[in-house]
Amino acid sequence: MAPKILCLLIVLFLPVSSFAFSFQFHGFNQSDLTLEGDSKIVKPKGTLELTKRVNNIFGHAFYNKHIKIIEKTNAPSPQPKVSSFSTCFVFSIVSPSSGLGGFGLAFTVAPKTHFPEAEGGHFLGLFNSSNDMNASNHILVVEFDTVNGYKGNVDTKGNHVGVNLNGMSSNVTQPAAYEKGTNEDFNMEDADAVCAWIEYDGETEIFNVTIAPLGELKPSKPLISKVIDIKSVMRENMYFGFSASTGQRKASSHYILGWSFAVNGVAPPLNVSLLPKPPPKEKGSSSSPWFKVVVGILSASTFILLCLLLLVTLYKRYMRFETLEDWEMDCPHRFSYRDLHIATKGFIDSQLIGVGGFGSVYKGVLPSTGTEVAVKKIMRSPMNGMREFAAEIESLGRLRHKNLVNLQGWCKHKNDLLLVYDYIPNGSLDSLLLNKTFALDWDQRFNILKGVAAGLLYLHEEWEKVVIHRDVKSSNILIDGDFNAHLGDFGLARLYSHDQVSHTTSVVGTIGYIAPELTRTGKASTSSDVYAFGVLLLEVVAGRRPVHSSGQFLLLDWVLENCQLGQILEVVDPKLGSVYDEEQVELVLKLGLLCTQHKADYRPSMKQLTRYLNFDDPLPGISESRHSASQSSPTSFCFLEGMSTGLIASSQSVSSFGRSTMSIETGI
Ligand SMILES: *[C@@H]1O[C@H](CO)[C@@H](O)[C@H](O)[C@H]1NC(C)=O
Ligand SMILES: *[C@@H]1O[C@H](CO)[C@@H](O)[C@H](O)[C@H]1NC(C)=O
Ligand SMILES: *[C@@H]1O[C@H](CO)[C@@H](O)[C@H](O)[C@H]1NC(C)=O
Ligand SMILES: *[C@@H]1O[C@H](CO)[C@@H](O)[C@H](O)[C@H]1NC(C)=O
Ligand SMILES: *[C@@H]1O[C@H](CO)[C@@H](O)[C@H](O)[C@H]1NC(C)=O
Ligand SMILES: *[C@@H]1O[C@H](CO)[C@@H](O)[C@H](O)[C@H]1NC(C)=O
């Protein structure tokens, strides 16, 4: 029995011989590890992939057996002691070149391998916000982090190494670096792979962590070397392994290529040539200088492209105002919509100076020159052939005469057409004639008529092309500050008629001014302009509209009647009183009748008319007419060839126009 007891005693009092254990993996075999979460072994070389580059995932891999890490010291007072351990592994982090890599990778010592309630991201799939740093976790973490630390914690730098007990606040942390003569900082994300060594001395409680890029020798000086009491964290049996996670927007792939481990011994060194090849880095994260140059050039050109894109966007936004077709580019009379928009203060109502059948007229001041203009806005303009239209406008824009409302230019905006004219301050002739409180005196009226005649003459005969006005009427004549006439809207009527399906059926003009042949043929001519001018002559003398709104009164009939009764001066505007030149008034009235003859051929040309108006030529001798007996008397003048029939025809046509007549009104 004694030897037996002795044996027992010997066993009891001998120092407990240290348990020694080690393993070494160059690449992994499925059966070596317990995999949790999203981790997996990538065939064929056995790279351990803890996370892919996918947001919000985590993965763990632990050596498949737990390891006894606490040993009891011998008597007299048995004290638990953490065994020394040593490990060495190679990891690789592949981040997107965008810089949105994360979250981190950690060497993990834990009492279990499964963490169902843990969170990813910063918590590495090991902890959650409520149990972080709770001593009941019993987890030791050595983190190799590439993202700034959590909240206000110590590890506020990205690219750092830290030792954590029971949570994500580090007991000690250091920016990633290694000793190679001097202290070399390096980016763990940029390195193809990183070797890490962790050593813990159970006697001195010194915790060493050392890192270096794969291929470098193990640095002699650890990055972290500190006394850390890990006793409280350790349980008797612990699992050793790795954890990694990605975050909401930061996601790197985390890989382990090889791992060796030893308890109570030195971890066997890894043979680099036996390791799986590090996974390829994302293009652009290489640190070769040439690559940096290429990346620099690429990012510079990207920047330039972005700037261009921005410019194009701004230009397009500007051009939303200004959608130009190519043919519009080289029209000298084209205004930019922007300018007109500014000029008219955005076409606000307070700038509105008139509304006509086709649109509104706004007063404006051009921002570039400060000149006053009238902008006529024709909404939903009927023109289909904008191009032909523009050509026409371009040519009209070249017309310049002191008795025209000169067209300065135009602008097309979406379906609207904007015409820019000289601004003429005193409004239209008809408004002055019908104004109850203001009377134009005879000299002014005569001057106005001469001016209109000069303008029409210019259009008909003096410009390079014959321009038929088509809508001569008092509301189209604008009066300036010196009571000079400016004929407006010339040539436009034709543009409108362009759009009509059949040219022959279209009649453009205004009731009361339309020559009889126009209603039959629809074909405007210089003599139909002369007819309208004739009506205007009568209107200015009489101060009455050519057709009363009731349709009962026809100015032409009335003048003719009075003419035939020998009392032509009866028609003179009562507002003139008797202050007028009888000779001139008579001339104008007779000219009015002469111009409104039924047969177009009998009407004088504008050139001839101008001579009559200036008393350069006497009115045609009545001898030429059938009623040669009553030469040159006002009454005989009233029976000129075709006049009465023309009158009947025109009065009929007036009453039958109704719908077919387009009236172009001007508000200028
Ligand atoms: C993995 O390891 C087990 C034993 O640890 C071995 O039987 C198996 O052949 C290995 N498989 C591979 C693919 O190496
Ligand atoms: C955190 O994890 C613990 C277990 O480790 C669990 O009891 C707790 O409910 C979890 N809290 C949250 C907020 O998930
Ligand atoms: C730590 O966790 C335990 C069990 O999960 C819990 O009872 C305790 O209240 C926690 N302590 C703190 C400080 O949160
Ligand atoms: C780090 O560990 C030492 C020793 O265990 C302890 O005194 C200290 O409070 C710890 N510091 C932190 C920040 O956990
Ligand atoms: C830890 O590093 C120190 C030097 O900084 C060294 O003296 C010590 O031996 C190392 N400990 C282990 C277990 O390698
Ligand atoms: C590493 O592995 C290669 C290939 O098996 C072998 O030739 C070499 O001797 C090994 N090196 C060391 C230091 O063991």
Automatic annotation (TrEMBL):
Location within or outside the cell: Cell membrane
Group of enzyme by EC: transferase
All copies of domain Protein kinase, residue ranges: 347-615
Keywords tagged on the record: ATP-binding, Cell membrane, Kinase, Lectin, Membrane, Nucleotide-binding, Receptor, Serine/threonine-protein kinase, Signal, Transferase, Transmembrane, Transmembrane helix
InterPro entries: ConA-like_dom_sf (IPR013320), Kinase-like_dom_sf (IPR011009), L-type_Lectin-RKs (IPR050528), Legume_lectin_dom (IPR001220), Prot_kinase_dom (IPR000719), Protein_kinase_ATP_BS (IPR017441), Ser/Thr_kinase_AS (IPR008271)
Signal sequence interval, chain numbering: 1-20
Similarity comment: In the C-terminal section; belongs to the protein kinase superfamily. Ser/Thr protein kinase family.
Protein name: non-specific serine/threonine protein kinase
Originating organism: Flemingia macrophylla
